[in-house]
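Figure caption, in words: inputs first, then the predicted bound structure.
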Amino acid sequence: MKTCIKNIRELVGIVPQGVLRKQGAEMNETGTLADAWLLIDGDRIAGFGTMDTLPEADRYIDAEGGLVLPSFCDSHTHIVYAGSREGEFLDKINGLSYEEIARRGGGILNSADRLHETSEDELYRQSMERVQEMIAKGTGALEIKSGYGLRTEDELKMLRVIKRIRENVPALVRATFLGAHAIGRGYGHEEYVRLVCEEMLPAVAQQGLADFVDVFCDEGFFTVEDTGRILTAGEHYGLRPKIHANELAVSGGVQIGVKHHALSVDHLEKTTDAEIDALQGSVTMPTMLPGSSFFLGLPYGRAKDFIQAGLGVALASDYNPGSSPSGDMRFVMAMGCIRMRLTAVQALNAVTLNSAYAMGVSDEVGSITVGKRANLIVTRPLQSLTMIPYMYQTPFIRHHILSGKEINA
Ligand code: NIG
Ligand code: FE
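Bound structure (N-(iminomethyl)-L-glutamic acid present):
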């Protein structure tokens, strides 16, 4: 079945085959084509061109002067969780910091308690609602982490829920094992790190439940030494690292991530030039999460400096109940522009191709490229890409197409 989208004001996000990420000055550009059509064959992008060469198709979608861009890719989320933490939201309003809430036994441990009490079916139901919301807002690929289990059975429960989501949504899903998100209740620090390495990781790997391994390498959570041990154990099972680093302090997480060929190092609110230097020439995608800067009142990542230094930047939502209760990637893009002073094109590259790279799927999604999965947003009539982050609350999606099929059609 061939579907042709016609009367596209501008096709945005065209990337040649084989380009898997953008770095430095490449971030400033993206391929565009005005007055265009795009052909979908089955679940793939089959071609595109200008309206004077409109091809035959079984079905046409009239974009009526809207733009077409790749669906958003969200490479960092924690959307499998139970309930909410709105009580802590009030604590925060009353002046407590993220670290103070965590020290009082709130934060991640609070979510772990709730998850423990919640059945696997109910956890799936709540999590699916969040994924549906994200898809409705334009996300077509997402990574989901464990890390609210913090005991072997509960970590496996979370990862089984992620697997079930993956099998039941039209979006592309990748799973990350984040047993080292916090020290589980009742464990000593060393005892817990050993549990992660010697019991959780082997079980997760044996059941084939994760693509990646993550560690919260930050002040008050896991040290560089813990992180090195966990990543080495993960490597043994073929799990590539994605690291939480430099959110609360200059933690050394970037350097240990690069050393272990991490696919991404994420957060980076607190970085110095040493982290920028460490990332040079690496395979690791620096990933910034402006949603948690916004919600926690932290500094925003130094995206412009990273780009200036020749590095790429990805942006992701960090959707979670404690530090970023939103999976709205359009808002992430807007914060990239408004607070991190990225241009709309830089922000688009950060929320599509580079975010796809940061979860190892940029050969499959993240750009308008012949042969890639047809994950596409058709906007309402808009004069330019810049309108999307600029009018950041005005509805902009007219059609969302995943694997060639229209969502909510
Ligand atoms: O990415 N920083 C660590 N983990 C999450 C927060 C998780 C939580 O507070 O529940 C984050 O911000
Ligand atoms: Fe996170």
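The mean pLDDT is 97.
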